[in-house]
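call fold target=NADH dehydrogenase
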Amino acid sequence: MKKPNIVILGAGYGGIMTAVKLQKSMGVNEANISLVNKHSYHYQTTWLHENAAGTLHHDRTRIQIKDVIDTSKVNFLQDTVISIQPDEKKVTLENTALVYDYLVIGLGFEAETFGIPGLKEHAFGIKNINSSRLIRQHIEYNFAKYNNLKNPGEELLNIVVGGAGFTGIEFVGELANRVPELCKEYDIPREKVRIINVEAAPTALPGFDPALVEYAMNSLESRGVEFKIGAMIKEVTPEGLVYEKDEQRVEIPSNTVVWAAGVRGNSIVEESGFEAMRGRVKVREDMRTPDYDDVFVVGDCALIINEETDRPYPPTAQMAIQQADTVAHNVKVLARGEKELEPFEPNLQGTVASLGHDDAIGVVFNDKKLFGWSASVMKKVIDNRYLLKLGGIGLLLKKGKFNIFR
Ligand code: FAD
Ligand code: NAD
């Protein structure tokens, strides 16, 4: 019998965990498994805000795919997906094309720009290793430039972060730690630097526990973060950011506007003809697309409705990792010619968000609230647990976060 071709697109949390699960559960002769990713490495998206602020080197965040993939079972192709042709069971890559019997789409997220003028052209985004490294280097360049100009402007030292969701809050938390170091390094008085977080909703972290939100804002404000709450970003220009609050238009001069105000699924999904909402396919309970029995979606490109709230589950790494278990199981079942597919049932353990290296907030284990150092330790435990799951003790020791007293 011909071995089925299983193709996995993207080596983010969802894609790489699907590959790792399949390599553990299927024999070498059962299927041809291919994993396609733009880069030779998997990166921990959940650490990118640290790379962007410069509090963690990006080499800690990236993991060579060949270090976690068994290449005798999974063929890794470093290439870029251009489009998917589900009716022909074909994927077009930049350098070649692949045919599949079963496809897993795990192409991750992009920034959702909501058509805001100037955003694409003038704002930075915490999207991947390269975009995060650019933010770090850009901030440092502006600090370095400051003391080399006769009349330096405030735009060099105003760092504006759009959105106070979890990404925005985690990023300003890292900046609050990093800026004092940069000030020392570049001979700049701390009071000259502004870290400004602009949020449209009436509160930071809308929908999260109000007491923990208050804790987070107090902690960040005490370290020099300014919040503009109820402030809708309207435009980004070469000169800075424009927001509207109480019907007033306010401009903040800035060379460094970082957009952290929303994500969508990879646009390749829609462009390939899959029915999607902001790049996310509303999958069946077995994680397959509504229209194709041989196409699964995992991670941020998948949309699942939470029956209790009647709203989509937020796209998270936690969801992507759990979905990978179901996707890998179901792909294996189909590849073996069996029929019993299992439904995906999320088992969410809570949310923990960092506020810098030794502070955090979280709700875990059925509504237990954590804040401060204990939440920060919990965040590192979560990060380390993922490394263990992905690459065992070796990867944990190589890339784990152990310095809880940093
Ligand atoms: P991604 O992690 O986005 O990976 C997609 C992969 O596909 C990448 O390797 C990319 O290179 C590859 N790819 C993309 N396009 C192509 C192409 N055309 N061709 C080939 N390869 C391609 N969630 C949590 O649960 N906990 C957290 O603490 C947390 N913190 C976060 C912090 C930040 C700063 C951000 C931005 C997000 C955070 N999230 C967190 C959300 C979480 O990171 C995402 O939900 C998760 O990364 C989604 O995983 P994924 O597998 O769908 O794709
Ligand atoms: P988000 O959609 O969760 O938050 C975006 C924020 O930007 C919202 O508060 C929104 O009100 C605000 N916003 C939108 N448009 C705006 C505008 N024009 N002007 C001002 N503010 C505006 O996006 P995110 O924070 O990037 O998170 C993306 C996903 O990743 C979410 O599912 C999140 O839960 C997850 N995540 C989780 C963690 C964690 O668990 N620690 C950390 C980061 C991200």
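return ok
The mean pLDDT is 96. The chain is about 30% helix and 25% strand.
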